[in-house]
Sequence to fold (486 residues):
Amino acid sequence: MNQADMGLIGLAVMGENLVLNMARHDYTVAVYNRTTARVDQFVSGRGASSRIIGTHTLQELVDQLKRPRRIMLMVRAGTAVDTVIDSLTPLLDEGDIIIDGGNSHYADTARRTTALANLGLLYVGTGVSGGEEGALHGPSIMPGGNPQAWPHVREILQAIAAKVDDGTPCCDWVGEGGAGHYVKMIHNGIEYGDMQMIGEAYWLLRNLLECSPADLSQVFADWNQGELNSYLIQITADILKTSDAQTGGPLIDVILDTAGQKGTGKWTGIEALQLGAPAPTLTEAVFARCLSALKEEREAAAAVLAGPSGRATAPGSPAAFVEDVRQALYAAKICSYAQGFQLLRMAAAENGWSLDFGGIALLWRGGCIIRAQFLGRIKAAYDDTPGLANLLLAPYFRDAIQAAQPAWRRVVATAAASGVPVPAFSSALAYYDGYRSARLPANLLQAQRDYFGAHQYERVDRPRGEFFHTNWTGRGGSTASTSYNQ
Ligand code: 6PG
Fold:
């Protein structure tokens, strides 16, 4: 009794692996699962260890824990989290800590942090990224919630987290309320963008060069040696060289081209719209999944909607096109991360979080799905200029895009001319061109709004905040509409 350092509820694969990770770091963990047969299975199988204690009721679990009690929930995000919290809170004492390690929506985490604080309990909502392997060997952990909890959970969470080369853990306090889960949501939005852009690179090479998956596996393996080095590029190389056990052909060719999603990418897009943060590439990646899901409609449309005539081919030599696509991927990736961090910056201002952007890049440097060499550069950019408005302005990224943009523009133009969809590559380019434009055609848009709805406009030759209305037709009145944004 009272010997376990941590309680963990929810023995699906992430939960089990986190428990094994904690036990490997010499922490004693009491475990509980609603279907208790799972507990018995675990503690008599993979989890057979003197450091792992199986329990069959929440009371039993609670009784096993050192005080203040620390209980991690690895249950499905949504109402299941509230249900477990409701069952658990009557069994706890003031100062005990609940940690939600699922992909919860940040607003739920903020609400739960407040509700539990009112009961004298400390709540932590933490992003945990890295899939099964990460949970077992060292995930990226992004905790937020009640700051009073951090000293009590810091040691164990940092011990089980991934470490970067100098031993720094990919786990640090992110901020209050829903900040940890917000940062995890942005991680997933960026993950969606990375995956979509890698898919576009693969598809361009596949269609325009007629490469086999095995050839492409080598291309991605080569790319992984350079500035694109990352977990997602590495697994892409692995995926493309894997054969199907049934047909013996490339496995990739028998996987149905309809993407699933669990919602975190969608939440990122919704947040971007809510805050008015330009994150077109992250959002395009979600829409690309939605479009892919319309498989039957696409098949019907393919029979009737024409694209460019003639067989699409890459301009120049195959090697030159491969290099162009690599550079396009790198440039688009920079824009996608710039959007993610811009969104974080706007969310920090909106929610009163003082986020450490360089620190967040470091949390993602190891353990998580988007882990990449590149994140070290983002950390350095924020170290150099803590108030950096946009990553595109950091000299390293400015110069990288400058070098890559001729190839990037060639690739997007080739894709458009060939009828190969590259929504993330092209939206990233439009973002880049929009962000670097001192003037945009929004003047015409403002004129149209004022024309049909008296919505008013500001003038280039007057101070900001002074609004004007024109009686465009001579028939309108002089009353202007009020200005608001719902
Ligand atoms: C991670 C992942 C993970 C996510 C899955 C599935 O960081 O380990 O982001 O949290 O749930 O990748 O996401 P989708 O089903 O939405 O693709």
Notes: Residues 103, 129-131, 188, 191, 260-262, 264-265, 368-369 surround 6-phosphogluconic acid (CB under 6 Å). The mean pLDDT is 96.
